[in-house]
Specification:
Length: about 475
Amino acid sequence: MENKLHFYNTLTRKVEQFIPNQEGKVAMYTCGPTVYHFAHIGNLRCYIMEDLLEKTLRYIGYDVKRVMNITDVGHLSGDTDTGEDKMVAGAKREHKTVMEIARFYTDAFFDDCRKLGIKIPDVVEPATNCISDFIRVIRELLDKGYAYESGGNVYFDTSKLKEYYVFSSQSEKELLVGVRDDVEEDVNKRNKSDFVLWFTKSKFEDQELKWESPWGMGYPGWHIECSCISMKHLGEYMDIHCGGVDNIFPHHTNEIAQSEAYLGHKWCNYWFHVHHLNDRSGKMSKSKGGILTVGTLEEKGYDPMVYRLFCLQSHYRKPLEFSYEILDNMGAAYEKLVKRIASLEREGEIQKEKFDEYRARFEAALCDDLNSSMAITVLYDMLKADMSDATKFALAESFDQVLSLKLTEARPAGEESGVDQELERYILEKIEERKAAKKEKDFARADAIRNELLERGILLEDTREGVKWKKA
Ligand code: AMP
Ligand code: ZN
């Protein structure tokens, strides 16, 4: 672990060196999806960047245990404690049971992850598996005086804490600006910032999922699930907790409040947050409708790997604006990159010094607050550098353990296309020449190149992702 990983810790508001609680081991938790709809590509940006963090940790030698929940109950349509349970709303919309909805969209989520090269966490736990854990923790919070019953619900009493707004010095009013729903005053609360741990009074009579509890039939609040599921699998101390920036308040703020009240000590040292993917009208969100999914991209002819590259080319701490134009450019770059790697001679001597030098540069980029676009620049530099093909191929394979762009899966040129390597190189040269001619508006020359290739039995196609060729 020569390179020391640094990344931005939302808790301390600075880029910090990462030092885990136990040497060489990392306990990591990720807020999982609410499975009432397909994940949109904004949600998936978050999971791609968290995947990058996990794979970087593994690449530099850590033994990582990563846990993720599946929110299949209790997440209300607003970020406050009012609104309808998203799962119930989804089930109503699709005329299915809540559990059918949960199963369908959980499978769809993992399908998307697979297509985007996102590793499934070591432990994935649906909230509905852990009801007895939630009840046990809530009971203890009541015993310790951190919670109270009121109007049928159990609330966390934020006035019992020394500091509630741990992530910033902002006032509640400022923090609530980012919250999605109209804030409806809950008269049962003692303090405005208190939040529900257990509901028995839902505004909705038809709440489908309910469990027996010491406080009556009901269901858990959203925040308690992440605290309990992480403690169940990672114990009392956690190294890294991840999520999107919209989770900072109230979700993560409330998680810290109840976990530390329950444990009686500090719980998690590093908080990693990914900024949003926006479309032209603002933050992409499931509740807006008309969302962009991996399925939409595939229908439009994009390889999901191109979206992963799009995400990796920007920094996780910057908002990212989605556009098809940029995706088209990424598509062309991706195809070229994969072809370049496929053309490398795989057999031969690996130059150890060169290998180590470029691997160290790649690690250094990632360790610098996960600078993924710089890591990709190292990949390009490496492909241009003076070293054997076999070394380059071995490095591409190694980098892809983190980038997961299927860089080395394309078959070598010739093998796949049914033409020899010399002809393939010639075709690629001609494609470049034609591109240059088109740029200079020399369309006669561009057409001549296309016809010349056609005479040799090669057909060019102009696609969204650049020029493709096949045997005519
Ligand atoms: P959800 O399924 O709504 O609970 O969201 C899953 C994850 O996606 C959470 O960590 C959110 O913070 C994150 N997220 C939601 N919207 C966006 C967005 N537009 N861009 C990036 N991440 C998002
Ligand atoms: Zn969570």
